Amino acid sequence: MNPGQKKPYSIGLRLSWTFAGQTLLGLGATSLGIYLVMLFDLSHRADAELARKAALVQHLVNEARQSGDLPTMRHKLDEFFVAHDDLEVTLMDASGHPAYTGVRLQGVLSSHLRSTTFDLPAGVVGTGPGRAQITMNRSADSQMLHRLALALIVATVMGAAIVSAVGFWMVRRSLAPLHDLARQTQALRADRLGKRLSLGQPVQELQPWIDEFNELLVRLEYAYGQLEGFNADVAHELRTPLATLMGQTEVELSRDRSADALRDTLGSNLEELRRLSSIINDMLFLSRADNGARVAASPEASLAAEIHKVLEFYEAALAERGLVASVHGDARTAFDAGLIKRAVSNLLSNAIRYAYPGTEVIVRVRRQECAIALVVSNTGPELAPGELPRLFDRFYRGQSSREGSSENHGLGLAIVKAIAQMHGGQVLATTNGDLTSIGMTLALVAHHDAAR
């Protein structure tokens, strides 16, 4: 691992621990709520009980004050509270001295006691007004709350542990398709690019990734097939001139030759070397285009003007074949003049090679919504529909019976495609009987954009 690289983490463990933490918090909050509700309910009940007992004492005191029979009041208080060992009643005179005390609460913690006091009318306890105090022992409630808290803690911990264990298992099971995809990906090799990723039970969240990856495999398989075919074509194209060069050289070296004969051989070898150099240069250009090379910024210019310059160069070839050429339309945009001339030259060369004698080669330039189309049309042998998609493949030649198919090395239209891509466009090819149209589009670039 690089020093600055972050340590990888496990999605499964992160999800599992997050789920476990949320479960513990959820159960803990629920248990705390239950405990607080019980605490409030018991406290409310204790207050209600103290209020009822206070009302009873006030009733007995009022009866005693009206009748003047205080001993009877004390007797009733003893009878009523003797069965309530959790209650203590104290009647105090005006000076605060106890005049009556019922059952005494012994050995009870002060935190477990709950009291209420109220005034007594004069003449009940002494001559002046007095006070009454009722104290309740809540030790039983405290013990019950303690047991409840302990039970809730155990239930929370055990429940969180059980739910978390199930969560760990569910997360691991849910991530099993990822492990399956990893095993399938690991099994992919260059000789097994035809394989595709799949799951026995499709997963909705993973299916878009699987589809995109399979599309990538399709593109890789196509690119790998093109690379293998390209390597075979390169070897074939280079083998022929090299074999010619070696054969002629070996023949010339096998016996004495005159200067004229050697000069002829060297001239022939030079032609083959030029062919090799042309192939290598074209391959280097295509390699740069494949690596994303783009055209340099340039001012706007007329496409028709550049096409006329190329046509002047092909006047002899057109006359030799009995052809005429014309340019229809024009458009101004920013482009690399050298590359456009090369593309037009390749398109014209292809059209002239396959055009019927006495016909016309037409170069059309038309402005589209966001691009400019440059198309070269010729009348010649009809192309099979299956050939159109392959016209721009490297080292692809048309039908072997077509005239001139062995005179070129099959990179001309591939270079046209590369130049179109370097200008932000694409290639196009159509056929309608014996009329074939091949060309490309250029992205429409404003002058201020090209000048940046």
What are the salient characteristics of this protein?
15% strand, 55% helix, Heat Shock Protein 90, Beta-Lactamase, disordered C terminus, Helix Hairpins
What can you tell me about this protein's structure?
By secondary structure, this protein is of the alpha+beta class. It has three domains: 11-161, Beta-Lactamase, CATH 3.30.450; 224-290, Signal transduction histidine kinase, dimerisation/phosphotransfer (DHp) domain (Helix Hairpins, Orthogonal Bundle), CATH 1.10.287.130; 300-450, Histidine kinase-like ATPase, C-terminal domain (Heat Shock Protein 90, 2-Layer Sandwich), CATH 3.30.565.10. The protein is 55% helix and 15% strand. The chain has helices spanning 11-67, 70-81, 139-174, 176-186, 207-254, 259-290, 303-313, 315-321, 337-354, 412-422, 447-450; strands spanning 87-92, 98-101, 113-120, 130-137, 300-302, 324-328, 332-334, 360-367, 371-379, 427-432, 435-443. A five-stranded mixed beta sheet has the order 6-8-9-11-10. β8 (360-367) and β9 (371-379) form a beta hairpin. 18% of the residues are buried.
